Amino acid sequence: ELPNFDLLVFDNFASQPYLPSAYLEKIEEFVRRGGGFWMLGGPLSYLGGRHQQGPIAALLPVALPGAAPTGGAFRDVPVQPRLTPAGRAHPFFQGLADRGGEPPPLRGYNVSGPARPGAVVLAEVPLGGNQAQPLVVLGRYGDGRVLSVLTDSLWDWAFAEAGRGRGNRAYLAFVRQAVRWSIGDPLLQPLKVEPERVRLAPGDPVRARIRVLGEDFLPSERTELSVTLRGPGGESRA
Fold this sequence. Notes:
The termini are far apart. By secondary structure, the protein is of the alpha+beta class. The longest helix is centred in the last third of the chain and has 14 residues, at 169-182. The protein contains 5 helices and 12 strands.
């Protein structure tokens, strides 16, 4: 039934007691062929769910070591997330961090390895020195998109915002934007063409603004573009 869905979510879920290996392989195939996948954290997620031992590990945007380190796979301690430059530019966090500040605190985080090459870390947990644990990470796997959230208390943001008298709109916007990104919504595509005028008469000049962003939603440098105009009769001009 997986092809009937756009997005699959594992929420603090240890799949091994419930899903045979053949099902996990189908999930890997689902994502590789364009499906969206989220893994949300918690004591039964990531290393705590032994996901490093199955096909799911290959599609995650964070590397999973072979075994949990000393101290356990999940650290139940207060966490102050820190946004990366990509996190500050990304639509996910618009409204959740005021005036260059950080999002509200969370409780607990999952231990993982570093982000994989090409993945985009939006938020992290400072560990002292120059060390940091990825917390919210985006990645591509085949034609699919994967969101890793390495905590099970993200919903705290809704209550924290309400406690500040602002309601939970910023948190709901985060969830909506994350869903849209995961299913490839055109509104969150990194390439946008904005014509100067919607209607043109024959002979009018055609002007448009083209915005190119990277996977991190920061301006993309040294991007090569080719533009082709096509007329109603099928004629085209590069």
